[in-house]
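Figure 6 in text form: structure in, sequence out.
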């Protein structure tokens, strides 16, 4: 299974070299790396250019002219991966909050179960959050996933806001990425909602979510509040979808 790991970056010069080496060291055959960099002022793009020259074909980069949103970065990354023959696309952060050590288990789960999507989940049995998170932050994250999103969208996924996912390529084609309009953290919610409405099946595997190793978090209260409001937009936009509305001629899952 040819897998492309898509990593959006903005000012991740401290993390990206270590992350790329960690991904290259994984016992996952035919895994390549695509960094989508938003013209990071700290030189992230230049660092990845050097690694791409050192590991041609295994490390790749898309340079974008400026900070243009997480959603569009992932869409460009997914599109690139599909155009380059990926059988599956891995989405993850580059700051080690998504531990690459979980990736072999995610790949094995996808191959063993034949599922369409594998989610690295904080909210299934065995999943957990950084022990340094305060009680309020933990409760907010739990409430957003376990109560708020599921109440509005009726998603089956317990971790609808997480961004550590392995997608079969045919799912991304069947979803029709032009349907996805969210450009912030609600992108994660919109993509899993659309996938579920179209009849694709996700399996969640437990992960421990660790705060970033280095650098500053890009999540703020304003960003979280905006994402919460946009969940309603996601519902209005896609509530009519059914499996018969898949964009590609993939068979409807019989799970």
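Output sequence:
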């Amino acid at each position: 299974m040819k897998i492309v790991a898509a990593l959006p970056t903005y000012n991740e010069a401290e993390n990206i070299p270590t992350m790329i080496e960690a991904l290259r060291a994984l016992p996952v055959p035919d895994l390549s790396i695509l960094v989508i960099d938003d013209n990071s002022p700290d030189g992230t793009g230049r660092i990845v250019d050097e690694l791409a020259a050192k590991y041609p074909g295994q490390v790749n980069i898309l340079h974008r002219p400026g900070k243009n949103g997480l959603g569009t970065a992932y869409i460009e990354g997914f599109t690139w991966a599909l155009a380059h023959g990926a059988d599956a696309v891995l989405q993850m952060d580059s700051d080690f909050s998504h531990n690459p050590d979980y990736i072999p288990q995610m790949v094995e789960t996808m191959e063993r179960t034949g599922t369409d999507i594998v989610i690295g989940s904080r909210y299934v049995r065995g999943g957990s959050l950084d022990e340094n998170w305060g009680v309020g932050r933990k409760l907010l994250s739990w409430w957003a996933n376990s109560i708020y999103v599921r109440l509005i969208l009726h998603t089956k996924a317990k971790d609808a806001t997480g961004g550590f996912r392995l997608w079969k390529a045919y799912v991304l084609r069947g979803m029709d990425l032009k349907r996805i309009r969210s450009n912030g953290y609600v992108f994660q919610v919109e993509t899993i909602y659309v996938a579920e409405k179209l009849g694709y099946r996700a399996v969640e595997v437990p992960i421990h979510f660790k705060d970033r190793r280095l650098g500053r978090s890009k999540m703020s209260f304003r960003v979280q509040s905006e994402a919460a409001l946009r969940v309603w937009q996601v519902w209005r936009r896609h509530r009519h979808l059914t499996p018969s509305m898949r964009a590609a001629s993939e068979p409807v899952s019989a799970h």
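Caption detail: DSSP finds eight helices and nine strands in the chain.
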